[in-house]
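Is this the right way to post structure tokens for a design question? Let me know if I should format differently. Anyway, here goes:
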């Protein structure tokens, strides 16, 4: 399911039920099966929305990386049947939110190299993966992870998003 929807933020004014506060926010959502094939499709969706919204070209690589890493984490670790991507632009901020309905599955330790006494830890500099959220943090102004019995929601905010900013 793909949806794009302009949002309007309103602020109550004196004697008025609400008035527009700044430019409207823009949002787009896509829900797909939590499978490896969905990751590049979500990356293309995010790129198409960035182009449609005329976001700054410097955002392309960061947006692709964030969507890829967060979606891949759902596929690898959640056990969720699907994942949802929500993109929102408001002002100079692009918010990337990925949600799933799964439970975190611990990554299996890698097989230790021959002659080594213990398996490698995820933080090990020689591991071939395990850098996803650290990469996202490096590109995001903020990163939040919420885990509950209903699943996980990860939100990353990227700046700047508009040409000339």
């Amino acid at each position: 399911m793909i949806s794009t929807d302009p949002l309007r933020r309103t602020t109550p004014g004196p004697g008025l039920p609400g008035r527009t506060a700044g430019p409207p926010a823009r949002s787009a959502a896509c829900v797909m099966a939590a499978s490896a094939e969905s990751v590049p499709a979500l990356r293309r969706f995010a790129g198409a929305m960035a182009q449609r919204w005329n976001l700054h070209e410097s955002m392309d690589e960061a947006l692709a990386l964030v969507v890829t890493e967060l979606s891949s984490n759902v596929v690898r670790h959640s056990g969720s049947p699907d994942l949802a991507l929500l993109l929102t632009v408001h002002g100079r901020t692009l918010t990337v939110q990925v949600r799933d309905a799964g439970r975190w599955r611990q990554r299996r330790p890698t097989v230790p190299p021959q002659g080594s006494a213990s398996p490698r830890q995820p933080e090990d500099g020689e591991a071939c993966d395990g850098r996803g959220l650290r990469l996202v943090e490096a590109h995001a102004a903020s990163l939040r992870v919420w885990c509950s019995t209903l699943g996980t929601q990860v939100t990353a905010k990227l700046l700047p998003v508009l040409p000339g900013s």
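Format looks fine. Someone answered above. Worth noting: The chain is about 25% helix and 35% strand. The radius of gyration is 19 Å.
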